[in-house]
Amino acid sequence: MSDVEAARLRPGHEISRVIKGGWQLAGDHGAVDRTAAIADMEAFLDAGITTFDCADIYTGVEEMIGEFIADIRHRRGAALAERVLVHTKLVPDLGLLDSITADQVEAIVDRSLRRLRVERLHLVQFFWWDMARGDAVSALEVLKDCQRKGKIAHLGVTNWDAPVIGRFVEADYDIVSAQVQYSVLDRRAENGLAAWAAQNDMQLLCYGTLAGGFLTGKWLGAPDPGFDFINRSLVKYRLIIDEFGPWERFQDLLATLKAVGDKHGVSLSSVATRWVLERPQVAAAIVGARYAGHLPQTLEVFSFALDGEDRARIGALLERAGGPQGPVYGLEGDRGGRHGRIMKYNLNTRPDDATLGRANG
């Protein structure tokens, strides 16, 4: 088993380059065995995957990670428990942007501290649904004040492109990371954000690297499933495949990734993740995993590197791809478009919030 690579976001904050994602442990992604999911987190930690991603709006996930940390602290000692780094998010509801107060923002921070059972949040990734509503700068100032109080170590952002992040950097915020969707299917981070990040000492934490499981051998040779999924994550990434090109081009991509994987003796999904990890300014890939069953395959990504021939082969296919085009989160940020209509916008206070329409409507 290969050593897990690490990346330093700031002195004292060194993360594993594969981060265990938490979205799949939240609500509408299928049934979750809570006890097994918490127990399996220990296998990731022991394997060297020390960094966990979650959010205040991922129902129940902060609590699960908090229970895991508390159990490790009790059974195996504080030193090991302190190796666990948790990246959470603060996402005020769309319906509250015009009225949310500083006390309410800090209350969300305090709630995450209680859920995670830690004295200080390692990284809080900030998101504001609509920059034209309310005062996002003041809300982030509350988080900066929480840093001064010792409640937060570092600040990041999620689902913003350079022009929005730049407003905060210019206001003297130290933004250490941006969490963005980035994969061989979705290269919007290369439309300016990655280069800007390099100039501003900020690194990318990438989700969607396996497109909700579409970038796995399961889908190689499979017919187009359309959009008839109960799992909202699959609808989301099936839409991205539509932007990339027709289903046949997606199949060509899977075949190419498999050929490269066969050459190195790894899975096509490991190739897809390795491709992202080797892109400029990428610190880590967030891999969704409810349990540890696929952990050996996840660790494959550290057993090889792409060579020039591999990159050229994948690049030639990507040149024929259609998209998606535009800025990071541009498609999803259009709440009237088919990408935006499947989102839920009020999960902090209204977890039953309905999506705004069918994905292909």
Structural class, by secondary structure, is: alpha/beta
Kindly provide the name of the CATH class of one domain.
Answer: Alpha Beta
Spatially, the strands of the biggest sheet line up as 3-10-9-8-7-6-5-4
Average pLDDT level = 90
What does this protein look like?
By secondary structure, the chain is an alpha/beta fold. The protein has a domain at 6-212 and 268-305: Alpha-Beta Barrel (TIM Barrel). It is 39% helix and 15% strand. The protein is built from 13 helices and 10 strands. It has helices at residues 34-47, 61-76, 78-81, 102-116, 136-148, 162-170, 193-199, 232-244, 247-264, 268-277, 295-299, 308-318, 330-333; strands at residues 6-10, 13-16, 18-21, 51-53, 85-90, 121-126, 152-158, 175-181, 203-207, 282-288. An 8-stranded parallel β-sheet has the order 3-10-9-8-7-6-5-4, with helices on one face. A two-stranded antiparallel sheet has the order 1-2. The longest helix has 18 residues, at 247-264. 42% of the residues are buried.
Brief write-up:
The chain has 361 residues and is α/β, with parallel strands linked by helices.
